[in-house]
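Design request, tokens follow.
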């Protein structure tokens, strides 16, 4: 009887350890995905900051510049009302870029000033086809 109890305890303990390992594996995958998202998000923020400091043409339409060292891509869309929408993107490991947006207003010369509360994590333009730059 004692041997049966010992075997039962070993069997239950083994099942519990297996379930715990599976739960830890699933949690590790979630943590890895979250870490990668945060890295991509900060790369896109950096692309926005870099793009807002660049000098852009004063012609309407999309204008894009690339920073090859870090893989940043910034595009500016000059609108009819004089405002501009900056698109900052960083290439993700999955191949699909993480993109953030920032409204800008013109200042003296060819520089731009970020609008307060003008940061967006989605494109505010309709239709959504206007959100994509003309270049690939």
């Amino acid at each position: 009887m004692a041997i049966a109890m010992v075997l039962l305890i070993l069997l239950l303990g083994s099942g519990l350890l297996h379930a715990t390992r599976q739960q830890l594996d699933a949690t590790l995958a979630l943590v890895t995905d979250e870490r990668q998202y945060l890295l991509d998000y900060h790369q896109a923020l950096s692309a926005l900051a870099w793009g807002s400091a660049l000098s852009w043409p004063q012609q309407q339409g999309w204008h894009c510049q690339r920073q090859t060292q870090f893989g940043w891509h910034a595009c500016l869309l000059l609108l009819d009302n004089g405002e501009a929408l900056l698109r900052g993107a960083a290439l993700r490991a999955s191949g699909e870029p993480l993109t953030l947006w920032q409204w800008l207003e013109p200042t003296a010369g060819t520089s731009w000033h970020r609008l307060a509360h003008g940061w967006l994590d989605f494109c505010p333009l309709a239709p959504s086809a206007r959100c994509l730059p003309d270049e690939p």
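Comment from the thread starter after seeing the answer: thanks! The mean pLDDT is 86.
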